[in-house]
## 1
Amino acid sequence: MYEQSTNNASSFVSQVDSAFVFIFGISLLFLVGITAFMVYYIIRYRKSKNTEATHIEGNNKLEIIWTIIPTILVLSMFYYGWSGWKFQREIPEDAIPIKTIARMWSFTFQYENGLITDTLYVPRDKAVNLDLVALDVLHSLYIPAFRVKQDMVPGKQTNIWFESGMEGEYEIFCAEYCGLRHSYMQSVVKVIPPEEFEAMTRIDSSKLTSNNMIVDTRQAGNSIARKYGCNACHTADGSKLIGPSYKNIMGRTRTVLIDGEEREVVADEDYIRRSIYEPNAEIVKGYEKGLMLSYKDQVSEEEFQKLLEYFKYLSDQ
Amino acid sequence: MTKHETVSFREAQSRYKGIFAWIFSTDHKRIGLLYLYSIIIFFFTGVILGAAMKLELLAPGKTVMDAATYNAIFTLHGVIMIFLVVIPGLPAIFGNFMLPIMIGAKDVAFPRLNLLSWWIYVIGAIIALSSLFMSGGPPDTGWTFYAPYAFKTNTNMLPAVIGAFILGFSSILTGINFIVTIHRMRAPGMTWFKMPLFPWTLYGTGWIQILATPIVGITLLMIVGERIFSIGFFDPALGGDPILYQHLFWIYSHPAVYIMILPAMGAISEIIPTFANKSIFGYKVIVISTLAIAFVGYFVWGHHMFTSGMSGTALYTFSLLTFIVAIPSAIKVFNWVGTLHKASIQLETPFFWAASFLFVFMIGGLSGLALGALATNVHLHDTAFVVAHFHFIVFGGVGFAFMGAIHYWFPKIWGRMYNSKLATSGWIIFFIGFCTLYLPMFFLGVSGMPRRYYDYVERFHGPNIVSTIGSWVLILGLVIIVYNLIRSAYKGEKASKNPWGGRTLEWSVDSPPTLENFEEIPVVTRGPYDYRKKTEA
């Protein structure tokens, strides 16, 4: 179960919520007040009660009053909204940078030491600054419990920062419509003790795979697939999602389209390599072109070999 | 019967017969009804699509359709409802039918241009919907066609874009026609401040249509250029800027909200004094606030983009302007309620629609304040809260005003009365269904459910069930209302010239009006809402 709204989930919660309560309170007051006046008039002055209307064309004094009062109220709402928001633009200098990459339809998070995760880990009581990068289309990183949201725009870097005061797990949603699996583009932010975060981001990530002591090929391959968000579109159980499943591909003959022409190819190591680094060169028949981006410079050779073993394992069962 | 042998516009002979006497007619009343019938067809298509979405959201996971279908459905629902129903809605139907009569004219200034507008509308609509029957299927981009997704999707988004481009011309031509009609064709004695409020709102709307629509036109052309010729305007992969697209899109599409709501406010300003039997409170203030909304409405488009990554200065400037545009709307509400003070109110169906309009419009407007403030916007942006907000304004505001208008002017248009009890029960069921459908969405948005979600996490389940049930109640109300109106158009009791006791000029002509509306152009000596007895004046 994820944590819902608590006041110290992030440093913005209390300001945003008090602005909301202020605006909501005044709005409710007006709604109830005006509706009450209206209903009272309708009952009091219905035709059967009041057969003759009084001729009134207006009243300048009233017009001035009900122009000035709402003006003051909306300006105060504006001020409240602005003052509660401006901290979101004042990024502390010591905020820990975390590169956040969005693609259809997954988030990945990269820390200063190069470590990549599919879940966002942040330290408690420390400001973090997410550098937001979108690789394909617009996405929007939204953490409801923290009251933060920022669109991720391809070709342009945006930022979001926050500081959480409470350990726990909170939902991350993609809030900007991004295509077929938009509503499944979710992740989790885990607020952990600063020491743990320190330990996690200090280790040399190049040694990480060996340090992880992952011996089972299935686990290693699967964790790499998860880390790069592959599982948003591909499954390991043979079912079709956006792209073909990993299961039962190795060594099988596949019908692919190359520049619109059908060809039969055997799925060997080179084929898998091309599928990851040049995903749109050959499209398996029945799937759509242009949805997958190249993973060149992201998936390392070592990781590629792990994935290959994983796929072999899934095909040999 | 009057002493002259007169026939209504429905029976008047022209050189065409049958359906051609309608689709080639330059009579503003026939054109108004052509719009009505075409818009109603699209409206029901949109309603069915909306109901299908609510059904899918009844439970998490797949309920009745897959994600691709859902995404296409919410796109079509938006495109149809915005471009084909609500933007033309009140101006094209009641504006065409009533504007000339209300200002004492025989037709609009350019009757042929008026017919051309309807033809352009139909052609645009057919092109926009043609994607349904093409391989690749209807677009799945959302009605906003945001770049760069709109350039990457393999569905047919171009027909929808080209359709919307063509529809823009229909809108511009109607705007020009109404502005010239209002400037040049008012009856003798009808000074600007003796003109009824519905024509006033059409005047404000006309200017928005002329000035804002070309911007969306050029934007949609840029999309076409980008998709066909790969010119990089908006797609970063081609060197374009996706934020530029959002600016251009909302520079039109925000004022478009005022194209929708201003005539709705105009219709409400007609209904309330008629049923209150009393002059409208603060006539001139309402006129000025109409023009103020039309003017300030141009400068608030950025509030659709608070989380897009604009500069901080842009954010608080747009936030401030957004709050300022709220003031004239609030003033209108106060004046409408003020009109009821010491009135003598006839409790008839159009009045119930108008009163409930005030209620739902207030909820729509007040919820907009939480969206206009920066701190709360960041949390609520792109959530179900926004969906609830604009449905309260567009379906609540414009929709309720439309329902009020059609029940108000029904006797004038069809020359018959409807069953008042059935109409009122339709209204109450619709009203309850409407609130049940959209109020839970505010709650969902506050608790963080993003919009355009095919599937959702378990904690959003409860309010979604309530909302879906609301959609069923709303449709039940709608069926009752439509059944009653269609039946009454054929079998209703004959209506008199002025069944509600209205004082504006349309109530002085026959029901239904004759081809030329007036035998003799009237001379106007009194204000539009002067309910004093003739001797007192």
## 2
Amino acid sequence: MESDDLRPLVEKSSAGSAEAFRALYEHLSHRVHAYVRYRTGTEDAALDCTQDVFIALYAALPKFTFQTREQFYAYVFTITKRTLAKHYADKHTKAALGASDVDTDSIAAEGTDQETSDSVIRALSILDEKTREIIVLHHWSRYTFPEIAKLIGMTESAVRVRHHRGQRQLATIITTATI
Amino acid sequence: MKDHTHIDVVLEKSRPTMSEAASARVWSGVAKALLTTRPVASPYQFSWLPLSRLAPIALVLVIVFGVGSVGTYAAAEASKPGDFLFPIERALEDLRLSLASEGSSETLRAEFARERLLEIQALIDAELGRLDTTNATTSATTTPSVVVSGATRTRIDTGIDELLLLMGGLRGVESRDSIFAELVNTVDDITVREDDDDDGYRLRVLDDGTRVEIRGDDDDSRSEIREGDSRVRIRDKDGEIRIDVKDDDRDDDNRSSSQTSTQELINEAEANVFTDSTEVKVERSNGTDITFTTTARTRSAVIAEIARRTGATEAAIDAVLDFEVENRASRSDDSDDSEARDNDRDDDNRSDDDGRDDDNQVSPSEGDDEPIRRIDVEVKRTVAEVEVEYSNGSKERFILTYSTRVTLVSDLALRLGLTVAEAEALLRLEIDND
């Protein structure tokens, strides 16, 4: 989907069109879910968070002025992170109240290779945070490098360099782990 | 390099995905939320919230007593509506008003109101100075050819807001009248240059001695202020600021005084453009009303038609014409009574006077004729069952399809002849889950 296609969807959604917002959802939900899934413990939590992201996005759209597709993605990403933060805060509150809410699920969603996922998750956890973020956003949420640059506020070349290094690191970790 | 390809594959394999079913489930949750979510409101042109007043006052206290800068004070005094320091000027005035005694506060109000007037004139003058292509002889005493930009218009709006607020507190009828007259003189018939809006619009002022209306054609904001025991009412509806002044001594010699020159023949004119015809009602100052139906559909055509029938000048008609486009066929009983409008607004006991036979189904014609008490909406899936209750107790029901709260509110507003804000305020929403 080109930037030119996103703009009318964003504008119509912000004027209250459910249809347009549905289209935005279709376009964004997998990206958001993939990222959220990696940040939350369970698939249920991931789906809840994804839902909250879109509700928050809808409420916030009138404040948003569409300029570029990257800028819009960055806006969604900010909302996603805020929603995640709230999610963590809620979980902490629950834990403090004594409610047990331990996430025992592994990250793998339905239909993915459990063993591979586990080793990837372990490998990812060794990377530094920025690099991990870049790998996840690029491979799982399918953002391009220029988009990621805008999302996390780095230059595109810095993103590329980190991504390259991250890949190399991951390869080493996974290879040594499987030997 | 081989490692990289490998790692790409591994990452791809472990990519978390959302199943179709899960995605649909999440969306249904989102869709449900859309029914109730009220997105952040768009900027509101007339901000009359009393609370917003307090902040500048606090700021002034800090500046005046904390910093003690006489320069700031002077600069604020000289500011015009829309200027950075204007809120400070207003706050300074509020401060002086709150410190003043009963009698002197009246004088102060009048003084401040005149200041506002001068500022509005200065704004217009500045605009004229910038556009030297327009009529050079036109000065602040406005002729219909004054053209201002949208930005200036907003500033003028702000000035008018403030002016009206000040006047709302004025007790003396004479000073109020004379300031009204000056305001009418100043801003009447200013044309606003089309900046980005599709239609140009004008500011028009109508003063019939008991009420002043200032309207732009396209506004959509509303607010209401009551002063004292609701003797003065300022409302802003569909871009029309209306002040209802109720004075005991005036109710008797009903509007015999202070007609402005534009209304020598016609007090009020109202045109409702329906999908099939246009209904026009003209109220003349000699007390006789004319009601007719025409095929004219544009404002200018309707004005021409009224002019032909009444002999009034087009400019005079233009000044008083209330032009509304209704997105439906004409109703059978147009039981509007403009004359009674001013006095009856507060009385909820206005009965079905002209024998409407469809008792429970009052047509929602002009929303401002029969005030709506509330709007109940019950949502089942994507269907909204709407029940409108009018102040006279009558009800109306209809069905709307419905997907987001925003579209529901704007549909309701359109259908009931309300502003979005009014519909929002009256709305009681009930969502029936499953």
